[in-house]
Design goal:
The protein is about 45% helix and about 20% strand. With about 170 residues, it is of the alpha/beta class. The strands form 2 sheets. The chain has a 3-stranded parallel beta sheet with strand order 1-2-3, with helices on both faces. The protein has a two-stranded parallel sheet with strand order 4-5. The chain binds coenzyme A.
Amino acid sequence: MKEPHSIAIYPGSFDPPTYGHMNIVERSLKIFKKVIIAVATNPVKNNLLTPEERIIILKKIYRKNPNVEVDQFHGLLVNYAKKKKVKVILRGLRTVADYQYESQMAFSNKSLNPHLETLFMMTENRFSHISSTLIKEITHFGESAKDMIPPLVRKMIEKKIKLKKEE
Ligand code: COA
């Protein structure tokens, strides 16, 4: 029989995935047997990368790790978790500033599905300043965010930003 919490869903926009996200995945695999990285495809945020591009990147990063599944979901996270039969949502917390947004989400998800638990993992100090928005801003103004993202992510967002500027 399957252990009760052997799988966790790690949802996010991942626009783009960062070393901060990767650190959470790496550490969570010491607790869970499998982590499903679930890329939200809702057009809520004005994303730079398409869901397909974000998925391609994440699949490349984790191609050698059979304990990481990369997937996408549309609509509510609670419905996706139900479909996958997973009861644990994993989120990273950077600073106290994340708390309000994260607690609102966790309480809302709990009210939509009382069986779903949200677990928070503190982002390691060395990654707590990382933000997908800042990475895009730094790249837009011609600097490299190489300390925050892997090379393949950097190449992809540099290409996308260049194309955007040419539009
Ligand atoms: N280290 C460094 N940075 C991190 C990090 C970490 N460990 N974890 C997150 N971040 C940063 C990201 O870079 C990003 O930066 P930004 O604020 O500049 O964009 C930010 O934290 C959050 O991004 P991400 O982790 O990709 O998640 P998100 O907050 O965009 O994801 C969803 C939100 C997708 C989980 C949520 O909107 C959702 O569930 N949507 C589905 C619809 C739904 O169910 N809605 C109801 C929810 S109650």
